[in-house]
Specification:
By secondary structure, this protein is α+β, with helices and mostly antiparallel strands. Helices cover 29% and strands 22% of the residues. It has 14 helices and 20 strands. The strands form 5 sheets. Strands 9, 12, 15, 16, 17, 18, 19 and 20 form an 8-stranded mixed sheet that branches. A 4-stranded mixed sheet has the order 2-1-4-3, with helices on one face. Strands 8-7-11-10 form a 4-stranded antiparallel sheet. Helix 4 packs across helix 8.
Length: 560
């Protein structure tokens, strides 16, 4: 439909405005904002036919070409700033350095060059880079100043330093980066990654899970963080990426228990959860459950011989970042290779691990988890109601006699306010405006978020490197394509982080898309691509999952 030219009067000035009848009030208000500097929420538009609300279709007002309307309102403090000359000179992308361009919203992250069967390493590095706290900690890392540090390595061969430098270099370019220095440091620290291929020239393919584990082990030893300048140092990995099991070891034979043998309870740290795959494993939950119970043979002092024991583990600490490993590779004696289990095993974008926790931790997590779900439902209900009102408003405008955008005829038989016997006017029903309803619901939602924060256990609240709800969101996936660990191809999928608003410094909403890192090739993909990584053949299947604890609101009810 063609636009309608009208005149808007504001503070003695006339503005020519083209109005699209198909648009809504909020679009019209932003048109006026661009001309007058008066923020939409500070505008009052006088127009025959009703008040201009954000969700009101402009066709409702049956505007005529050349019609004049009036707008009241003055710019707020921020509005005046908008019209002021920029304090800093605007710099266009073509005038930026490569490092500046790489920091802009929408920039494609750097890929990594394959240096000969190093896709296992590239995919691992790209997924670990999805942890912002790791990048911050690496940025502050400095090797020991002595010529030889305590590990006997010269600084250039310090794996942690090389990772710091690698990530810094990657953040300053959108081109593929060549990780020569890091690869040299890795092969120096772990010679197995320098093994030559038996089937041809060059280096052999390696297992990405082994590379992940060795890099994390090195970081656990070297990378330290402090909560405050006066605080004590702690291992970054222990704080953010390690959990704790509470395990119970019980002899399967009743004779041992009857003879007085007591269960052995112990605690141990874990850096990843294993998803064991057998003929009954269809979902990640099944595999994790399999990994938390195992049989082992050891000597029983009560029985005086070896016996079978069952070790059952429960989680007593959940880290902020959780690594899950699909145990897809096993040693096949006939081929002398690590063969691959092809079975399809699905995994969720949101993972709930509360059922696998011990009773103490479960009692801390359940109230928070349940409140999170309650708040989400409230948010969905509010958004659904807003969309319904907007849709109904558009339908009402379309149902006006004479077609969409035509004026309603005045009803002569409209009811007038009735009066009582003593002459007083009787009050009819009063209705709340959409804005009042939204304000009430938003206030209730904010109160619920504050209540959610208050439910976090004080001990868990002090541990900002732990998960405080038991819920995780998927952030990264390392995949493998092929039939064995010693061949095939590895890639990585990393969820796009929300861009940071340059003015406020706050993060915007995520768009739900992912980056696919295939060595030096980086492609944007939609979330449904992740659903195809469950396996079931030699195509790309998930080998490592990186989950992050869902963000929770602060005491003020806001979520960063």
């Amino acid at each position: 439909m063609a636009t309608i030219p009208i005149v808007v009067k504001h503070q003695g000035t006339k503005y020519d405005v083209e109005v699209d009848p198909e648009s809504t009030g909020d679009v019209f208000k932003f048109q006026l904002y661009s001309l007058t500097g008066v923020e939409p929420e500070r505008q009052k538009i006088l127009i025959k036919g009703g008040q201009v609300k954000d969700d009101t279709p402009m066709s409702k007002f049956n505007l005529q070409p050349g019609q004049s309307i009036m707008m009241l309102g003055t710019p707020g403090k921020d509005g005046k700033d908008v019209l002021a000359r920029p304090k800093e000179k605007i710099k266009f992308v073509e005038d930026m350095t490569e490092a500046e361009a790489a920091q802009q919203e929408g920039a494609i992250p750097a890929g990594l060059t394959n240096l000969g069967n190093t896709c296992y390493l590239n995919s691992t590095l790209q997924t670990l880079r999805a942890i912002p706290e790791l990048q911050n900690a690496l940025g502050k890392y400095e090797p020991q100043s002595t010529a030889l540090n305590t590990t006997g390595l010269l600084p250039p061969l310090d794996l942690t330093k090389q990772l710091r430098d690698l990530y810094k270099s990657m953040s300053e370019t959108q081109e593929a980066y060549v990780p020569h220095a890091f690869l040299a440091a890795l092969r120096n620290a772990f010679p197995q990654f320098g093994e030559r291929s038996r089937t041809g020239p060059g280096f052999a393919q390696q297992d990405a899970e082994e590379a992940w584990s060795q890099i994390v082990t090195q970081l656990r030893q070297k990378l330290r963080v402090k909560d405050s300048p006066e605080g004590t140092e702690a291992s970054f990995i222990d704080k953010y990426m390690s959990g704790e099991f509470t395990s119970e070891l019980v002899c399967d034979e009743p004779a041992a228990r009857e003879g007085g043998e007591q269960p052995v309870v112990s605690k141990e740290t874990f850096l990843k959860l294993n998803c064991h795959i057998d003929s009954s494993t269809n979902h990640l939950r099944d595999g994790i459950a399999n990994g938390l119970s195992e049989k082992l043979e050891k000597r029983s002092e009560v029985l005086g011989r070896d016996a079978i024991y069952t070790k059952t583990s429960k989680i007593s600490r959940l880290p902020k970042y959780l690594t899950v490993h699909f145990v897809r590779f096993f040693w096949k004696r006939e081929t002398q290779k690590k063969a691959k289990i092809m079975r399809k095993v699905t995994f969720p974008h949101e993972l709930d691990l509360v059922e696998f926790c011990d009773d103490k931790l479960k009692s801390m997590l359940v109230p928070v988890r349940d409140k999170v779900r309650e708040v989400r439902k409230d948010e969905e209900d509010i958004e659904r109601a807003r969309k319904r009102r907007k849709r109904n408003g558009a339908e009402e405008a379309a149902d006006i006699p004479g077609g969409k955008g035509a004026k309603k005829e005045d009803k002569k038989d409209e009811k007038k306010p009735s009066t009582s016997a003593d002459g007083d006017v009787e009050m009819g029903e009063t209705y709340k405006t959409d804005a009042e309803i939204d304000a009430e619901r938003d206030a209730a939602l904010l109160a619920a978020k504050k209540e959610l924060h208050a439910l976090i256990d004080p001990d868990l609240a002090k541990d900002d490197g732990a998960n405080q709800s038991g819920l995780y969101e998927l952030r990264g996936v390392v995949t493998h394509q092929g039939a064995s660990a010693d061949s095939g191809h590895y890639t990585a999928y990393v969820k796009k982080a929300a861009p940071v608003d340059a003015k406020t410094g706050k993060r915007k909403e995520e768009d739900g898309k992912w980056w696919w890192f295939n060595d030096d090739k980086v492609t944007e993909v939609t979330a449904d691509k992740i659903e195809t990584l469950a396996g079931g053949g030699e195509s790309h299947s998930a080998l490592i999952l990186l989950y992050r604890a869902i963000p929770l609101p602060s005491a003020e009810g806001t979520i960063e």
